[in-house]
Design brief:
By secondary structure, the protein is an alpha+beta fold. It has three helices and four strands; from the N terminus they run βαββααβ. It has a four-stranded antiparallel sheet, covered by helices on one side. Helix 1 runs antiparallel to helix 3. The protein is globular, with a radius of gyration of 13 Å.
Amino acid sequence: MPKAYWIAHVSVDDPDAYEAYRTANAVAFAKYGALFLVRGGPQEVREGTARPRAVVLEFADLATARACYDSPEYQHALALRRPVSAADLVIVEGWDG
């Protein structure tokens, strides 16, 4: 079964308030076994446009990635993030070639 990923591009408007989101999302990520592969490091946009912060999380499978996003724990964290940032987030199944 292929792994699954959250791929997010984020613009943070209030870095101090965003820290509350990061603290809260850790609960959901621990519960669902998320592994950060990318967490806001330097990036170079070669085509198109992107928000300033890129994040990639790995999950065991697609069902787990979806369950994490839909969980009460992550929805609580999301309520903290939405007022202080804008994001594009996709959940994608990895290739098991």
